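INTERNAL AUDIT FORM
Audit reference: QA-55
Scope: verify that the stored structure record matches its stored sequence.
Auditor: D.O.
Record contents follow.
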Amino acid sequence: MSRQRFKERRTELRNAVARLQEAVAQVETPIVREAVENAPLIYHIDIVRPEEMANARLKEKIARDGVVIYPA
């Protein structure tokens, strides 16, 4: 990747992160959830609320391996 393209990608990523931070600062709505999950990032983001999950094994895996982007 060229140095220029790297700078462009870095700027795109920073802009996407800024939009993501703005979105998660809002009260969660289906629109906000969709915006976060479809943000143009290199990683896929799933928003989950452990208290709403029925699958105990999945809850344990998320607790062990998941990354908190923002606390509820």
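Auditor finding: record pair retrieved intact. The radius of gyration is 15 Å.
Action required: none
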